């Protein structure tokens, strides 16, 4: 599969074919990790479940900050 490097604003990027995105189960907005190897680059979807869990925990801690402080006493 060949793709073309294109100018996107002040950067350059690659448009990935829809069929490839479907096989990889990724969509626009998903994060990909780029790994540089001797033969080129490898793209992996980023597992951001830990970051999502931490964000949810911070939101709960912010919402119940006073109650959590009282429980800690």
Automatic annotation (TrEMBL):
It holds the Pfam family MazE_antitoxin. Residues 6-51 form the SpoVT-AbrB domain. GO terms for molecular function: DNA binding. Coiled coil: none annotated. Keywords: DNA-binding. Gene3D superfamilies: 2.10.260.10. SMART domains: SpoVT_AbrB. The keyword Transmembrane does not apply. This is AbrB/MazE/SpoVT family DNA-binding domain-containing protein. It comes from Borborobacter arsenicus.
